[in-house]
Amino acid sequence: MDMPLYCSSLAARVPHVSGDGRVSNKLTSNHVGSLFFQHQNPPKQILSLPKFDQSCSSSIMEDQKSLSVASPEPEKYYQELDVAVRAVQMACSLCQRVQDSLISKSNDQIKSKDDNSPVTVADWSVQATVSWLLSEYFGRKNLSIVAEEDVQKLSRADASELLVAVVNIVNECLAEAPRFGLKGPDKDLGTSEVLEAISHCNSSGGPTGRFWTLDPVDGTLGFVRGDQYAIALALIEDGEVVLGVLGCPNYPMRKEWLSYHHRYHRIITKLTPPTSESWDKGFVTYAMKGSGKAWMQPLLQSNKKLVWPNSARPVRVSSIDDPGLATFCEPVERANSSHSFTAGLAHTMGLRKQPLRVYSMVKYAAIARGDAEIFMKFARAGYKEKIWDHAAGVVIIQEAGGMVTDARGNPLDFSKGIYLEGLDRGVIASAGPKLHDKIISAVDASWDSSSL
Ligand SMILES: Nc1ncnc2c1ncn2[C@@H]1O[C@H](COP(=O)(O)OS(=O)(=O)O)[C@@H](OP(=O)(O)O)[C@H]1O
Ligand SMILES: [Mg+2]
Fold it and tell me: What range defines the domain where residue 360 resides?
């Protein structure tokens, strides 16, 4: 059986701290999961990770072989991937709780005060939680994070209620860290620690070194409306996205349901309740650059402990390359992308299916899973796409066998700061070169006569 790259690779290369404190990657397939490694700055961290599933070890060598062909040293990022996937699982759980309370009737009070407060609570809480976890595991001094939220509004005197809510949610979430195989704080974080964790995400990226990008709640409107949204975490090194982790808490069990209005989702979920072991909705998908594989694992159920590989399975883009059979997805909001321009392209290319309009980077996940073949986004002139809105999705699609470029066919450039500078015309993702070329030719043919 094809086992997750991540699982077998970790089992194969559990870092081992020698007497002098240096880390080596010792080959121990039956290791009993205490993961040690050293920060470049003290203190040395001890990570309590769950036992690794020994069934993973059978495919270690195969995975290692395929890795060495695809990329010189992708194993460099195993520890980062491990922590990132678990942190995003935790963030999904946090967001589900906030979204449930947001759409429950009992929460009218919060909504009437400020329609944006619940989503901003989720934004800040996820950012604080992920930032805190990354800095615990990789050391605060060397940790650079580019993220969407700043701390200004939350620090104002009139935001004290919001701040209390954020601190409580962060502490509730971190208290659950052991269930996800991570170590939480010894005692609840105080207000200043939470603010510090949020404001630590103030990197502005750039062409050299290593930084994380985080979109704590991508698809704000989808989140508020009880619909699709994503939590996106990526690691960028020297301008290249090397890891991508995307949490999609509302991704439905059946792909057809993606196009249903969120109210139907809830009704359907009630009508077809999941059995205790079956996948209800939601997953975390992830990929490591150069591995040639992308994975998805279901969200951790509320009473369960994350035992790796947590039923992970590989995802692969669709094999459809006939435009007549392909599904294209695009932003829900007309303000974010021209629906009329994509309708023209669809006509030119012979795309016959209705567009799939889905909020957030869930669209990238849909392509990686093979639930759709094309993603197109044409923002209005002057809008600058942000790196955190694309980084995780790009590497996941690429490793799942697909392509992502701008609408001239150039790679997206993550090395120029917080924006995708130089992005030409729009963003295109597809299941493969044949469809990709057709889209770019269609764009070329109609760009000059468009109003974009
Ligand atoms: N005017 C405009 N044009 C283009 N893009 C914009 C625009 N405004 C915002 N954004 C960014 O789009 C993110 C939402 O994802 P999508 O573009 O896929 O849109 S949608 O949610 O499906 O409507 C959204 O991410 P979040 O802010 O995290 O929700 C924004 O970063
Ligand atoms: Mg976003």
Answer: 323-446
